[in-house]
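Loading example: each entry is read as two labelled lines plus one structure line.
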Amino acid sequence: MITELGHFALILAFMIAIIQVVIPLIGAHKRWPGWMAIAEPAAQAQFLFTAFAFGALMWAFVTSDFSLKLVTLNSHSAKPMLYKISGTWGNHEGSMLLWVLIVSLFGAAASVFGDGLPPTLKARVLAVQAAIGVAFFAFILFTSNPFLRLVNPPFDGQDLNPLLQDPGLAFHPPFLYLGYVGLSMAFSFAVAALIEGRVDAAWGRWVRPWTLAAWIFLTIGIALGSWWAYYELGWGGFWFWDPVENASFMPWLLSAALLHSAIVVEKRESLKSWTILLAILAFGFSLIGTFIVRSGLLTSVHAFANDPERGVVILMILAVFTGGALMLFALRAQALEAKGVFSMVSRESGLVANNLLLAVSCFVVFVGTLWPVVAEMAFDRKLSVGAPFFNAAFPPFAVALGVLMPVGALLPWKRAKLGRTLWSLRYAAGLALALAGLAWAMQGDHSLLGPIGVLLGAWIVSGAATDLWTRVGRRSGRPFGRLARLLRLPRADWGKAVAHAGFGVTLFAIAGLTAWQQEDIRVAEIDVSFEVGAYQLVLTGVEDGRGPNYFTTMGVVEVTRNGQFVATLRPEKRVYPVAQMPTTEAAIDFRFTRDLYVVIGDAQEGGGFTIRTYLKPFANWIWGGCLMMALGGGLSLSDRRFRVAAGARKARPQGVPAE
Amino acid sequence: MMRLLSASLVLCLLLSSPVRAVQPDEVLADPALETRARELSKDLRCLVCRNESIDESNADLARDLRLLVRERLVAGDSDREAIDFIVDRYGEFVLLKPTTQGANWLLWASGPLMLLVALLLAFAYLRKRSEPDRTRAGEGLSATEEARLQEILKD
């Protein structure tokens, strides 16, 4: 019964979305207030009905209603509750429903928090947002309906892919989708502004919080996915340049560019048409990402739901929205006249450099990701483009970004003196050089990767600190006056510094981990000690056991250092009988400066087990840096000027609750 | 093709143990050779898996390829010869790091070329933006602003 109601609610939401596209657009064109006003209740009703449909599907998963085809295919009664819930979006149909739920959530949020928007702009934004919704409602209802019943329900289900049964991955898709789909808001603002033919400082200020929110969610989503790969896939890799990872990374790069260029629109009324173009492309890349994941065009490890026919439909949606928006852009862009004038050396130029590097690096990832398809179709060559290509082609851009970041962040607006800015960074540069020299001296070999990572990381972090420190000014006063003023700086300044420092931390951690990790592969006999780095490890026993829906073989490894107890690690090998899939559960001793990572393998014929041990220095810093970036975004989002300028009556400007 | 790949992926997951990558019995006695073998393995694709190198993969085919690489290195091949040997047998698809031959130069040059284009565009834009205010003041005024200016000047 609830299932049928959910299905019906979804159809109603589809109808409401159609109305929300047509009526407000006509209203805004004819300046009929009543017609424009339809958009707000429609957006909210659309969200409520979609939420009900999603809730109904979740209910079916939670109660293990195997009369639903989707539940049968992706769930099992013995599965832990958390994964019954996350199973709702751990499949194609459910994840598309989550996608459209978030589209309508953002629309509803814009209708609630967009009080300061001019009525025509608001009506058009909501109409464009609803148009995206219409496309995906139709896609779900006509090609991927999650509410289909089975005539003969089976006794039990076929279980969720065991790799997906993990807390990190349970929440990875919702965050990623909040990011992907959050960019639809920037897209809607861009298209609405093109229809209006007007982009001003206020527009920049309205579009920025939405972009920032989307970027924060993308950052967290990507970090969660990468962390999951690190501990679950069994050898501690954290980024594979897999097509599906690239699909989420490209919108991240472009949204990072967009949230910087929107600052120029807001403060200086320049870079307008470029910002509009970025907003269109950022969402376009989200759609491309969806297309890559759903179509199975590119082989990838994330293959839970690919189907070429559905891929074609998404390709059409992509073509209509991105193509249509770009056409509109071509027709209207010259109407967007820039106002601000600035010199070659200025904050504006710094932000242009940021955009240039982010956009070109995104282009490189894009070409690399699609090249196998191009090569096969155009040149009849079957080839692969894998991690080694990206590891050669991408880092130069990240390094250039890191080198320029502290300088660009400190340059004043309009007209700057490069010498003066560089001089104020002398301590940061000195510190970075000293630390890099130290790292070089401490490491055993002559590899440059580690010291360069230290150099860049320290340069960026201390550059961010310099940024805050110079911002409080030199006025004399009480001895702690400067510190007090530091705490009173606008949140946006803190956000910028924290996010920039986070980038430095991540950059350093990736270089450090890659340069200094140690690996040990051996057959470990029971109770025979072996050494990895400074640690002594002993495999004291191996036991078989069973969990709620799996069988496990668990090793017990005692770790000591110079006779001191460090940790007892329990690496596991699991087999999920229903899905007939084995997984590894690495045991990791997480520490601040290093992870000790132990994986157990097969029993050997001559006795003993294969044991793989990794010492991974600074591993946690990779995700720590990502969290800092997200936190910085959050601080910036909570800045007073968005609350005042966005015209929201509410105290909270985000308008984007996490659930 | 896709079906085939999915089927082989499922096989690859079903038939093999969950432990990844290099097994202890594969490791060469000579550490220098072993290091070279590991480096080469990272650039070679496990053909039945999805986007995994043979160094990471647990499939039987990946193990065969790892052993083959080591065999060639022990036989005295250079890195280049060992790679060529494998490409001859399995085709270009096995290389995770594409060559620069033929149209592939476009792939490798795409980043630098695009950077160059972007730099030129950005430079042109910045130059236009940084022209002194005076040259632009006249064209910046709309008709009404011009009228208002005349009015003020008259007073």
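The CA atoms of residues 11 and 82 of chain B lie 28 Å apart.
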